[in-house]
Amino acid sequence: FWQQVHDQKGHERHKEEINPKIADTIADKLERTGSFVDRLPFDIAANRRRSFLRTQIVGDIYWPLLQGMIATAEGQNSPQAVLMSAGGLAREVNAATREHLPNVRFIGVSQLRDGFAFRTAWFFAAQAKRALARLMAGFEPYSVKPHARIGIAHSWGQIGQGNRQEGDLGMPRDVWWYQASGLAPERCTIIFGRSKLTFAAADASARWLESHDFDIATSSQSPHLDLGARRIDSTPGLIRTLRDTISYGNAALLAIKSPAGSWQAAMYLRTAYHVRTWQTIFARENIKVWFDASDSSMDLSALACDSVGAIKLGLFWSSEVLPTSRSSAAHAVRFVPGPAAYHAYLRGPGGTDVVVEVGNNYQSTADTERSRVVGGNLRDTLGGKNVYVIVALDRSSSESSIVPPAKLRDFYEHLVSHTESDSTIRLVIKPKSPLSETPGMDTSLMMRIADLEAAERVRVLDDQRSVMDAAYAADIVVGLGVSSAGFLTVAAGIPTIFADPSLGIGGPDGDLLRRVGWESSSTVFPDTRAALAAITRSRVATAGVSHESKLGDLSAYLGEIDPYHDGNSAVRVGEFLRSFIEEIDDYQPVSQALDAAAQAYATTHGSTHIHILGTPNDA
């Protein structure tokens, strides 16, 4: 399909270009009459109002637009119809797509869960429940935590990011940068909320955090309320709950008088309720900095930060060297690895006040050195210098992904066939998910991999292992599409090429990929077969030549990906946050505290590595 889009319809049909354009057109129209974001009952910085509205529209029109493009590519000039569950937006989508998809008509279908009628009933029931909970709890005044605090959503658990010299191998990944700040651990509150972790994993993290004097708490959304941590009271005061209930009038007016009224009204109710939850937590915990690794387009906590005079942090890496239209941009401060990610950010919907280049934020120097040793030992077990080691790094895949399961299976099929055909090749597979659960894998291919494992010609690493544990064993890394795994190996200076069936190099963001060294038939290939053919040619042409001149050498682009290249990104993140908190401790408003932190960072690391974009809210 993507080849059809590129060849027949031109780049303007590419989903990552058309989607933001349509969203922007719709958002401009809604803003002219006052969008739902403008009418929320709390203060939000203007740049985040703008970005939040656009990301919500993008999220709801993403799949209908994709279906419309597929229908256009397959049906040529014949009329097409696309049903969209965000029915309240159908009229606006039809008006905004006349130029891009003239033969497609979008038809709105009522959706119970996010429809205005359902949201109305849900909103009043939820507010009544809050009022009852507050009445039953009584009206004793709550105590606000002393001193400004940094709050972190517990997300990753313990994955061996500790201090090896101290034997502290269980440090939760969530606090990797906080410890580098030099701030006291008791000024950091770790909140256990929604999580995919087992109770045992969450409990291990909680015990480690408590033993290191971190403050831990559970929210009402936590699946592990039996951790023993204190519970956070996230129920607003009675008067505030009554005022929120009365604000339903804003939603009713939106539904009656505004474009996409039913959609806007439902979004108003949903946003107002959940932002108030976060606002209550941040105010009572005195949280002035909030970090959640699980960012999403519905970034309600960022809006809550604005409403209480706090800042939301975001980390930026992975395939977001390309803009991802549905990802959230509503962070006050966005930490990115380097210039390439910063330029990618600029193509998104905005919403950030300060963008800070800090380097590779996946691994520290100690982690890298550990992986170097592990990779070296792995290489020795495979045959050392007597073999040629290919490391395969896949990526997430689904039927609706730009790399569907069929392409993921092709990736492994060609790698396995290539290994079977040459006794000097060793294949190391570091999958993103357990190999048996990887989309597209089947029994026959798994059996062939098992046979090669038994012959000690293939090694499959645990999906939870570091990518670099495999990469440091490689002669060359083959990455599938645009992914964090491939960029990590590039940043480490390991020869890396990419098989990209999504044809990103020919898309509207191809210039961003070329900025980090992607060149057709040189470092990126349209399929795995072509990538492996390039490896074969390179092995013949460069026999006996040093690594630096071999296929996949992207060392010239390292400054774009990570200008520091020292593994100390945690220190730089920590420095910035410490400067900010010290200003807040001195009773400075958020805007002044951010400005001071930015100036301190520029003085230490250079003004080219920090970018001031917006004005924070000093609520």
In short:
The chain is of the alpha/beta class and 619 residues long. It contains 22 helices and 17 strands.
Task: List the uncertain runs.
Answer: 1-13, 161-168
Number of helices: 22
> What general outline do the C-alpha atoms trace?
globular
Estimate the strand proportion: 5-15%
Largest sheet: 9 strands, mixed
Rounded to an integer in angstroms, the radius of gyration calculated over CA atoms is 26 Å
Number of strands: 17
What is the CA–CA distance across the termini? 48 Å
Helix content: 40-55%
Give me some keywords for this one.
single chain, 619 residues, alpha/beta, 6-stranded parallel sheet, globular, disordered N terminus
Overview of the structural elements:
This protein is of the alpha/beta class and 619 residues long. The protein has 22 helices and 17 strands. Helix 2 crosses helix 3 (46-75) and helix 10 (261-285) crosses helix 11 (300-308). Mean pLDDT is 86; it is low at 1-13 and 161-168.
Q: Would you spell out the secondary-structure blueprint of this structure?
A:
Blueprint: H1 2-9, H2 15-32, H3 46-75, E1 80-84, H4 90-96, E2 104-108, H5 116-137, E3 149-153, H6 178-181, E4 188-192, H7 199-211, E5 215-218, E6 230-231, H8 238-246, H9 248-257, H10 261-285, E7 287-291, H11 300-308, E8 311-315, E9 333-336, H12 339-345, E10 354-357, H13 365-382, E11 388-393, H14 405-421, E12 425-430, H15 443-454, E13 458-460, H16 467-471, E14 476-480, H17 484-491, E15 496-499, H18 510-515, E16 524-525, H19 528-541, H20 558-561, H21 569-585, H22 590-605, E17 610-612
Parallel strand pairs: 1-2, 3-4, 3-7, 4-5, 5-6, 7-8, 8-9, 9-10, 11-12, 11-14, 12-13, 14-15, 15-16
Antiparallel strand pairs: 10-17
